Amino acid sequence: MISRTVLQIYAARSILNVVTPDNGLTADQLAILQSISADVAAAVDPIALARHVVGELHARFGYELPSVYLLQTDGSLRLAAQIGYARPYETIPVGRGVIGRVVHEQTPLLVRDVTAEPAFRFADPEVAGEACVPILGDGQVLGVVNVETRRAGLLTERDVALLELLARMMAVSLRNAESQRSLKTLLGNLPGMAYRCRNDADWTSEFVSEGCLELTGYAASAFLDHQVAFGDLIHPDDRARLWDDTQAALSARRSFQQAYRIITASGAEKWVWEQGCGVWGADGELVALEGFVADITARVRADEALEARATQYRQMFERNRAIQLLIDTDSGAIVEANQAACDFYGYSIEQMRARTIADINQLSGTELQAEMSRAATQERTYFVFQHRLASGAVRDVEVHSGPVNIGGRQLLYSIVHDITERKRTEEALAHQALHDGLTGLPNRLLLQDRLTQAIRMAERDGRPFALCVIDLDRFKDVNDTLGHLAGDQLLQEVAFRLRQALRASDTVARLGGDEFALVLLDADASAAMLAAQKVVECLGASLELEGHEVAVGASLGIAVYPENGGDADTLLRRADVAMYVAKQTRGGYALYTPDQDQSSSERLTLVGALRRAIADDELTLFYQPKVDCRTGAVAGVEALVRWRHPQQGLIPPDRFIPLAEQTGLIRPLTRWVLNSAIGQARAWHDEGLLLSVAVNLSAHDLQDVELPGWLAALLAQWGVGPEWLKLELTESALMSDPAQALDVLTELCDLGVRIAIDDFGTGYSSLGYLKRLPAHEIKIDRSFVADMAAEERDRAIVRSTIDLGHNLGLAAVAEGVEDQRTLDLLGGLGCDLAQGFYLSRPLPASQIAEWCRGRADADLLAA
What we know:
Blueprint (H helix, E strand, L loop, with lengths): L3 H16 L7 H16 L3 H14 L5 E7 L5 E6 L8 E2 L4 H9 L3 E3 L17 E9 L2 E10 L7 H32 L3 E7 L6 E4 L3 H5 L3 H5 L5 H4 L2 H16 L4 E8 L5 E12 L5 E10 L1 H23 L3 E6 L5 E4 L1 H7 L3 H5 L3 H4 L4 H13 L3 E8 L5 E13 L2 E10 L1 H15 L9 H18 L3 E8 L2 H8 L1 H18 L5 E6 L2 E6 L4 H16 L2 E3 L2 E3 L3 E8 L6 H18 L3 E3 L4 H4 L1 H15 L3 E10 L5 E12 L3 E3 L1 H11 L2 H21 L5 E5 L10 H12 L6 E6 H5 L2 H14 L2 E7 L6 H4 L6 E4 L1 H4 L6 H16 L3 E4 L5 H9 L4 E2 L8 E2 H18 L1
Helix pairs in contact: 1-2, 1-5, 2-5, 3-5, 17-18, 18-19, 22-23, 24-25, 25-27
C-alpha cells in the first residue's frame, strides 16, 4: 500500500503530464509547477491552500497582484487569499466584472489592456490587465484563481495556461478535502451486519442487524426465517479456508478475524471483513457465535489500485527523464537515483548509491550541510549548485528539494535540472541587452545605469564627474561613399580609439548611429575639457578604409555634475545641446552653458508643435500610386505624411521625422499614420476600390515590442485584412538592431502583413541577413532607377537586383520612374511594380479614386 499523499502527488503530476505538452509554458514554469504540485494537491484546508497558491504566484512566478476566491454555499464569491492590494475586495458578485463573469460562464478570461477592452472597467483604476480562470470540480465552479497587473500588455495566453494548471491541481485538493469530510461522516454510520448464531447443525441465526440488507441484498428477516444462511453466501473458493480458521480459533477460545468474499443477492461479488468470537455456556460448551461483518470491497479495490499506482509511481521515478535523487538527511548518502541521474553523472546505480551528495557537489562541507538542513526543515527549497560528473566536468544545476518520509526514514527528494547551457545563454543575452552588438561598448541602457551609479558616488564623496556626448562629423560621407561595411569598420575603430584614450575607470558607450558618450569620473570642467581635446585629436587622425585614407572629425559636448544637472536625463540633454554648439562652431568640443539652450529654442518649439499636431490630428497623408510594370494596372499606394504648420507652412518630412525620432515622438507619429492609412483603405474598400496601402516604419518602430499586438487590434477595429497593409523599412533601419528587428518583423509577418525593404542597394545589402528576413518585396532605390535608361551600369544593377529578389521569392518594386522609357525597360527586366512622378505625384486621398478611374479608362483605350 502507498499513502494518500503519494496518490495526491501522482494525481497532481498526472495533470501536468496530460495537459502541458502544447500550452507554451517555459521549462522554468513547468519545473516550478512540478516542485509545488505535491503541496498543492496534498492541502486539506481550503484557506491554507489558497494562501499557499497566492504566495507561490507572487514569490515564484512573479505576479504582482494574485488572489484566490472560493465559492460559498450561499453562492457568493468570498476572498480566500490575495497579495499586493491596498484595499482588498472581500466579496465579488457572480456575473459582474472579470471574476464574476468567469464564475458565471465557467471559462477563463484574459484582459490584456482595459483601454483596448472598455467593457471591463476595473474597480481599482490602477489595474490595467487581468487573467482569471475557474477552479472546476465535477463540472461545478469551486472558485477562481486571478492575477492582475498595473501595466497593460503584460499578460498573455501563457499566463492563462499556467493559472489553469494551478486551478486543476487546486480542484484535486478541494475535492479531496470534501471527500475527507464525507468519509468521516461515512465512518460514523458504517453499514455492516451484526449477528448471533446458535451452535446447531445449521448455525441458526438468532439476531441479524438491519445493515445486512445493504451488505448482502437480503433483509434481516430472510436470515431469521431461515430463508437464507450466511454461510451459503461465502464464495466457494473461500469456504474451506474460513471453516478451518474459525475452528482453530474456537478450539483455542480466541476471537477470529478474517477477510473473504461473498456473493450478494444480485450476484455481485463483495469483499467483507468479519470479526467474531464464540459464546460459551456455564458447562464450557460452545453456545453461539457473535460477530460483525463489514463491507471492505472499496478498501480492497483501493488497496489494489494503490498497489498498482505505487508500481506506476516507482516506474515514473525510474523512467522519468528528469534527474531525481533520494538523499539521507543525516549522512547525505544517496539512497536512490533514477536512470536519468545515472546517465547525467556518469555512474552506475550501484556507484550512485555508494556516494554522498558531498561527493558530487562543489560546495564546501559546511555550506552544503547548511543548505541540506534548510531543505530538511522546509516544505520545499530551491538551490543553484555546481555538480561534478564522473568525467570530472562541472555543470551548473538547479535543484528543487523537499523532505519526504519513506518507511519511517526521513529523506530529501531532489529533482536536478542541468542549466549550464541556459546559464550561458542568459549571460550572453544579458550582455547583448546592455552592450552594442557592433562595437561591444555599453549601450544607452547600461549608460543610464552607469550615470545613476556615478551620481550616487558623487553625492557620497562630494566629487564632480563629467558626461560627454560625441557625434562624428563626416560619418555619413563614409557610408554614402564607401558603404556601410566601411562605416561599421570606422565605428569599431572609433570605439577602440576612445577606449585607448581614456582611463579604465571611465565609461565609453555607444548611443546609436555615430553617437557615443563618455562618463568621466572624478572630473571637473577643466579635466573634462582636457579629456575632450585628447578625444578630438585621437579621432581626427586618419585611417585606411577600403584602400582609402579617411579622416572624420568629431564634435563633443560636455555637461558636468552637479553644475549642469542633477539627474541622468538632464545631463544627457544638456551634453547633447553642447555637442550641437560644438558642431555648429566647428570648435571640436563645447562645455554646456545655460545660454546655449536659447539656440535650441526653435527646435524645442517645433517639438511642442509636432506633439500637438499629432494629438490634434493636424497632419495629413498623401498617397503615391504603384502600378504593375507589365499591365499598367494600379496595384496599391504608398502613404506619405505631410505637416502644414500654421505659421511655417509646409514642413518637409526630412525635417520633422528625424526630430520625432530624436524626441520619442516617432511612436505616436507612426501610430497616427497607420491609423489614418488603414482607415482610408477601409473607406476605399467600401467604395469598391481595393487598394493596398504601404506605410514607412522607422528604426525606432522596430524597438517597439508592443507594435505587432497594437497593429493587430487596429486592423480588427477597421475590419481591414492584414494582406492589404505593407510596411516599408530601410536596410539601415533593419540593421540598427538586427536581432530585435527580426523578432518584431516576424511577429508582424505572422499577422499576415506584407514587409518591404525600402531603398534597397544603398544600405548594408547583407545577403546573409536578407535571406533570414520575413520580407515579401524589395524596393530598388531611385538613385539606380533614375539613370538606368542612359547608364548601362545602373541598368545592370537594377537587372541584378530584380533577379536577386525573384530568386529569393521577393517581388521587385522600382522607385523614381520619371519617363516611359524607364518604365518600358523595367517591364522588360521583369520588374513587378513601379512608382514615380512620371506615373503620379503623391495625391490627397480625395483624388486617388479619380486617378485610378482615369488610369483604368486609359488602359481600356490603349487596348
